């Protein structure tokens, strides 16, 4: 009897795909750079034109790494939420993380405009935006955890997260209503999500936070597997429910919160990638699913970003639009083809 | 019957004394059932019977510490239930519940191997001994050839066997099952109950389950606990029949108990 299937080959393929997607992403852009020179620039060898090296090192590489971090982090937190809530519709933002971040950013952009005129607009830059987003999502997450300590039912938590989301959305609506067009535009652009604004030090910080979040997720693999049978069974098999719940929520908060702070509320990936992954990896074991969604998410966002920058043109489309426009039909197609939901 | 003689001397595998079960509330608790006292020995195959809503499942869930007792004592293998840590409890009691699984996409083997969780390391790696236990559990319920089937492909009866196999893989001296025979036809009801009886007698496991199949339970069980909201009698099925305990179980207007056949009949 050897019921444990080896997933070495799919993993190897995904790794190769990741490398290919990474090269494709760095090789294509508004300025056409030959593949050979892209390679040389990455490896630090001589490049035909010095500006190409600059573009690749200061623009394309950080963006590609951001795509990898954002894609894998969101997908992982999506998987955590889907298993914790045993709900295929759950994603990284069900706990109100993105709405909290939106509120923080809306308060910064539109609030500063209302109060202090031009002094306010000086305050708005990448760093303050990231801080406002973190503060917002952190506060909402704190509220959700506070509620989680008082209730026993995990499903209620899902509803509470949605309610927090509604409230913050309402506040943002009120703020928008009183804002001028310029501020509104600034806010809307933030809400599109963006992978291209991170410097290397910011990237390092994001990577570090995601590393901690991923570590917590790996520690949760065993309880996640137990939760597949429901909370009563999980408990009867020795899982400490409350502690696992905190760790899983904490991991999601770190992953989705940090990503939203640095790249805005990137939609769809976190919900879709776990489903796409289950189509390839026919297992429910999180020992397989966790690394698989990390790889899959990174690949998918790299590809989406490649399309978003519309190769050989100077347009860059909002990443949120591309993830949904490309992703949603793929998910629909997969579900129709298989005629059943794998969850 | 022969076992009743030396009940006093032996240590109980599962014992309840003056137990009250129900749900705590702000103003006084909502007691579902109380004054429950009984003791089961290693290898006993026992059923809890009673009308709908009398508290069979609540009692079972309390014994498995899914919920806390309102008052009274529960001890497992001579130790108070409160003194068990999560992990120790997982090595002592395994459950088969009625709640639907979160996902039916699990393969039979994946589901059964989760039973090994109390014994595996931090990430749940299965050692050779674990795999052996899993194979044994699958063989015991006769599903060794369907280990890679998905749960959504299984019939209700097979699904119940998989859940029992998972509990077996957990390798506990006690096994609690909540209505293991619901949704099954008569043949499969008997099949499941005979399987459980065999497990309890061959492997010396104490198995306690709730059921509405009183007739079958009378034929198969070593002990029965009747929840009637008054005395909650407990004993061997024939003792209970002699004491005419089943007669008052249901209102007499539609069905009555026939002590000759050990079954209920429709009043004409």
UniProtKB/TrEMBL annotation, chain A:
<keyword id="KW-1003">Cell membrane</keyword>
<keyword id="KW-1133">Transmembrane helix</keyword>
<dbReference type="InterPro" id="IPR000522">
    <property type="entry name" value="ABC_transptr_permease_BtuC"/>
</dbReference>
<feature type="transmembrane region" description="Helical">
    <location>
        <begin position="156"/>
        <end position="178"/>
    </location>
</feature>
<feature type="transmembrane region" description="Helical">
    <location>
        <begin position="315"/>
        <end position="336"/>
    </location>
</feature>
<feature type="transmembrane region" description="Helical">
    <location>
        <begin position="288"/>
        <end position="308"/>
    </location>
</feature>
<dbReference type="GO" id="GO:0022857">
    <property type="term" value="F:transmembrane transporter activity"/>
</dbReference>
<feature type="transmembrane region" description="Helical">
    <location>
        <begin position="246"/>
        <end position="268"/>
    </location>
</feature>
<dbReference type="InterPro" id="IPR037294">
    <property type="entry name" value="ABC_BtuC-like"/>
</dbReference>
<dbReference type="Pfam" id="PF01032">
    <property type="entry name" value="FecCD"/>
</dbReference>
<protein>
    <submittedName>
        <fullName>Iron complex transport system permease protein</fullName>
    </submittedName>
</protein>
<feature type="transmembrane region" description="Helical">
    <location>
        <begin position="198"/>
        <end position="219"/>
    </location>
</feature>
<dbReference type="GO" id="GO:0033214">
    <property type="term" value="P:siderophore-iron import into cell"/>
</dbReference>
<feature type="transmembrane region" description="Helical">
    <location>
        <begin position="127"/>
        <end position="149"/>
    </location>
</feature>
<feature type="transmembrane region" description="Helical">
    <location>
        <begin position="93"/>
        <end position="115"/>
    </location>
</feature>
<keyword id="KW-0472">Membrane</keyword>
<keyword id="KW-0812">Transmembrane</keyword>
<keyword id="KW-0813">Transport</keyword>
<comment type="similarity">
    <text>Belongs to the binding-protein-dependent transport system permease family. FecCD subfamily.</text>
</comment>
<feature type="transmembrane region" description="Helical">
    <location>
        <begin position="64"/>
        <end position="81"/>
    </location>
</feature>
<dbReference type="GO" id="GO:0005886">
    <property type="term" value="C:plasma membrane"/>
</dbReference>
UniProtKB/TrEMBL annotation, chain B:
<keyword id="KW-0547">Nucleotide-binding</keyword>
<keyword id="KW-0406">Ion transport</keyword>
<dbReference type="GO" id="GO:0016887">
    <property type="term" value="F:ATP hydrolysis activity"/>
</dbReference>
<dbReference type="Pfam" id="PF00005">
    <property type="entry name" value="ABC_tran"/>
</dbReference>
<keyword id="KW-0813">Transport</keyword>
<dbReference type="GO" id="GO:0005524">
    <property type="term" value="F:ATP binding"/>
</dbReference>
<keyword id="KW-0472">Membrane</keyword>
<keyword id="KW-0067">ATP-binding</keyword>
<dbReference type="GO" id="GO:0005886">
    <property type="term" value="C:plasma membrane"/>
</dbReference>
<dbReference type="InterPro" id="IPR027417">
    <property type="entry name" value="P-loop_NTPase"/>
</dbReference>
<dbReference type="InterPro" id="IPR051535">
    <property type="entry name" value="Siderophore_ABC-ATPase"/>
</dbReference>
<dbReference type="GO" id="GO:0006826">
    <property type="term" value="P:iron ion transport"/>
</dbReference>
<keyword id="KW-0408">Iron</keyword>
<keyword id="KW-0410">Iron transport</keyword>
<keyword id="KW-1003">Cell membrane</keyword>
<dbReference type="InterPro" id="IPR003593">
    <property type="entry name" value="AAA+_ATPase"/>
</dbReference>
<protein>
    <submittedName>
        <fullName>Iron complex transport system ATP-binding protein</fullName>
    </submittedName>
</protein>
<dbReference type="InterPro" id="IPR003439">
    <property type="entry name" value="ABC_transporter-like_ATP-bd"/>
</dbReference>
<feature type="domain" description="ABC transporter">
    <location>
        <begin position="14"/>
        <end position="254"/>
    </location>
</feature>
């Amino acid at each position: 009897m050897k019921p444990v299937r080896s997933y070495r080959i799919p993993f190897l393929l995904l790794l190769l795909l990741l490398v290919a997607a990474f090269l494709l992403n760095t090789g294509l852009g508004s300025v056409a750079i030959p593949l050979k020179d892209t390679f040389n620039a990455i490896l630090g060898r001589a490049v035909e034109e010095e500006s190409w090296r600059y573009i690749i090192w200061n623009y394309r590489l950080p963006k590609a790494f951001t795509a990898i971090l954002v894609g894998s982090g969101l997908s992982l937190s999506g998987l955590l939420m889907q298993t914790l809530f045993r709900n295929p519709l759950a994603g990284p933002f069900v706990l109100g993380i993105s709405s909290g971040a939106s509120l923080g950013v809306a308060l910064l952009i539109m609030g500063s405009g209302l109060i202090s005129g031009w002094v306010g607009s000086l305050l708005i830059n990448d760093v303050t935006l990231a801080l406002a987003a973190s503060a917002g999502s952190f506060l909402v997450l704190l509220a959700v955890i506070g509620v989680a300590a008082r209730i026993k039912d995990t499903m209620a938590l899902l509803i509470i997260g949605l309610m927090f989301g509604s409230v913050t959305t309402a506040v943002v609506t009120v703020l928008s209503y009183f804002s001028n067009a310029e501020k509104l535009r600034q806010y809307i652009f933030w809400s599109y999500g963006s992978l291209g604004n991170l410097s290397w030090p910011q990237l390092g910080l994001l990577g570090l936070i995601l590393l901690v979040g991923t570590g917590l997720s790996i520690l949760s693999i065993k309880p996640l597997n137990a939760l597949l049978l429901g909370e009563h069974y999980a408990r009867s098999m020795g899982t400490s429910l409350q502690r696992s719940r905190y760790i899983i929520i904490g991991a999601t908060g770190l992953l989705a919160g940090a990503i939203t702070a640095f790249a805005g509320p990137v939609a769809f990936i976190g919900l879709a990638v776990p489903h796409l992954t289950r189509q390839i990896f026919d297992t429910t074991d999180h020992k397989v699913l966790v690394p698989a969604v990390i790889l899959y998410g990174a690949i998918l966002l790299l590809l989406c970003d490649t399309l978003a920058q519309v190769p050989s043109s100077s347009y860059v489309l909002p990443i949120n639009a591309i993830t949904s426009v490309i992703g949603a039909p793929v998910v629909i197609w997969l579900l129709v083809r298989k005629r059943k939901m794998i969850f | 019957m022969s076992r009743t003689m030396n009940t006093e001397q032996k240590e109980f595998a599962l014992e309840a004394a003056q137990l009250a079960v129900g749900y705590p509330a702000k103003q006084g608790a909502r007691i579902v059932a109380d004054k429950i006292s009984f003791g089961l020995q290693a290898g006993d195959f026992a059923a809890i019977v009673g009308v709908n809503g009398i508290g069979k499942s609540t009692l079972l869930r309390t014994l498995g510490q899914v919920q806390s007792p309102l008052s009274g004592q529960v001890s497992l293998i001579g130790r108070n239930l409160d003194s068990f840590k999560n992990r120790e409890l997982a090595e002592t009691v395994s459950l088969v519940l009625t709640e639907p699984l979160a996902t039916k996409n699990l393969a039979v083997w994946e589901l059964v191997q989760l039973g090994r969780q109390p014994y595996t390391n931090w990430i749940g790696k299965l050692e050779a001994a674990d795999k052996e236990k899993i194979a044994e559990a699958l063989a015991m319920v006769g599903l060794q050839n369907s280990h890679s089937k998905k749960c959504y492909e299984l019939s209700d009866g097979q699904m119940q066997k998989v859940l029992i196999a998972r509990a077996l893989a957990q390798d506990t001296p006690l096994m609690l099952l909540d209505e293991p025979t619901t949704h099954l036809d008569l043949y499969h009801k008997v099949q499941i109950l005979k399987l459980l009886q065999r497990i309890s007698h061959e492997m010396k496991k104490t198995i306690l389950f709730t059921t509405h199949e009183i007739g079958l339970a009378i034929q198969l069980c070593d002990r029965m606990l009747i929840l009637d909201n008054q005395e909650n009698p407990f004993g061997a099925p024939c003792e209970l029949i002699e004491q005419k305990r089943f007669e008052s179980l249901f209102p007499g207007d539609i069905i009555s108990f026939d002590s000759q056949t050990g079954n209920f009949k429709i009043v004409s």
